[in-house]
Specification:
The protein is an alpha+beta fold. It has 3 domains: 384 residues, Anthranilate synthase (4-Layer Sandwich), CATH 3.60.120.10; 72 residues, Aminotransferase class 4, branched-chain amino acid transferase, N-terminal domain (D-amino Acid Aminotransferase, Chain A, domain 1, 2-Layer Sandwich), CATH 3.30.470.10; 70 residues, Alpha-Beta Barrel (D-amino Acid Aminotransferase, Chain A, domain 2). It is 27% helix and 30% strand. Strands 3, 4, 5, 10, 11, 12, 13, 14, 16 and 17 form a 10-stranded antiparallel sheet that branches. A hairpin with a 2-residue loop joins β26 and β27. The longest helix is centred in the middle third of the chain and has 19 residues.
Amino acid sequence: MGFSHGPALTALVDFADPHAAESAQAERPSGARTRHAFGKPLQVLVAHKLGEVRAVVEAAHAAARAGNWCVGYLAYESAPAFDAAFIVHTEATQPLAWFAVYDQALPWPEPPIADVTVDWQALLVRADFDAALARIHAAIGAGDLYQVNYTAQMHGALRDVAAADAAACGPALFAALQRAQPGGYAAYLDTGASGQILSVSPELFFDWRDGALLARPMKGTAARGNTPQEDAQRAADLRASPKERAENVMIVDLLRNDMSRVALPHSVQVQRLFHTQALPSVWQMTTDVLAQTRPDCTLWDVLAALFPCGSVTGAPKVQAMRMIHALEPEARGVYCGALGVLRPGGAATFNVPIRTVTLRADASDRVHARCGIGSGITFDAQPQGEWQEWQHKQAFVQRASSPFDLLETLRLQDGVTPHRDAHLARMRLAAAHFGVPWDAARVDAALDVLAHTHPTGSWRVRLLLDARGEARCEAFALLADPPQVRLQLADQPFAQAHSEFTRFKTTRRAHYDAFTPADPAVFDTILWNEDGYLTECTRGNIAVLRDGVWRTEKYPMNLIWVIPA
């Protein structure tokens, strides 16, 4: 696979305005945004040792106050530079701090069109996950702490991409990640030998300008619903959940205490408590914490008070970080650190780099990928619920890691497509869900052309819509249905029963293909979910004739069909 090596860009920043109300609520980018590209830097400031972190931060802030743009990050493992009591892994594979200084911002470029595929390994063995939660519950029960943000790293590799193309393919994958997780506080950094950072974080760490300090911790998660009614109910349930509210309040209290270290007396306030923010695969709960900083406050002081963000540590912070060190076998790196932009004049906005992928070429000429996933664990957190939350949080990277088209299969009979409007309505919903441009006239035109070239006979039509909204059609001769078929029941539950790639029809079908019958005499496999309900087959629906009407619904596995002799 080839990639365009156009004008060299070392950074892309697409940050919401934290003070614009709509930017915190919209699933799609809207409102005022800091959206710029950056070319060759004037200077790169790097810290590889804890003793160098402060000098890098202060030099970056000085450069911004002098009229430059600065874009960079602090790794989670830089925490002891701010407080020696913070325990972290010491074998970090990337710099502890990295900032590039630019004399100008460039216009936002057109997103790259190259497709990138990432082959991910399994995140974590379920038994290890359950064992970690048991240790956290024991520590909370013993009174050592209240909450721990437990995480693990997904590892993968870019398919058919050589190390020499690592820098060129990074922006293409970043564009795909932004389509999967739009809005928020997104940034791409090419740090050279240390690799590329692709962050599409929805979480604001802090915004600091003109003495006003705003933090917006994100704690509390619920999966999105399959229908508008179910979706609204899940948001309401999240806001009302004692467990999720307690998780949010613990971190808000921690942030209030942290901010008070640099705030004017009595200036710390809490606003928009338990606000629910819609993301493509999950609802997230946020709360705003605001303060006025002291006149002599510096960026270093703000970071020393807040870093790492309590939402990715737990509470109390020192004890939570000790447990994180004991439970997590590898360094987090930029994940759960801070990534941000310093504007000319010194205003600073940093995200919490969750929903973040890092790329790095290895010695075998492959491009290695990492992505952290985690959640806050409180005493009443249940393993199954937290495990499902991790699966939902992976959706953004799984969506972006392999190109796919939206799909509808229609019947074309003598130039006419029955139920055409219903098929197109379903595809339009899928397009809205995945952020694919929808042009009804263009889709209709593609179907009309196919019907004109196939005026007679029975045809199976595949209507495809790619990520750019381009429609195309394929026609295959439709064979007569066999009088009777043999089906088999899946030997395990369909783990992807609630996946967005099951709810919506696309060309991504690996989760279905895994159940393809090995016996050629078997036509298809009946799938069932973890609740014991029959759902569908790999290639078609399950229809039941009830009260004279054919229905496609979920049915209990103990449903008995009586077939007349």
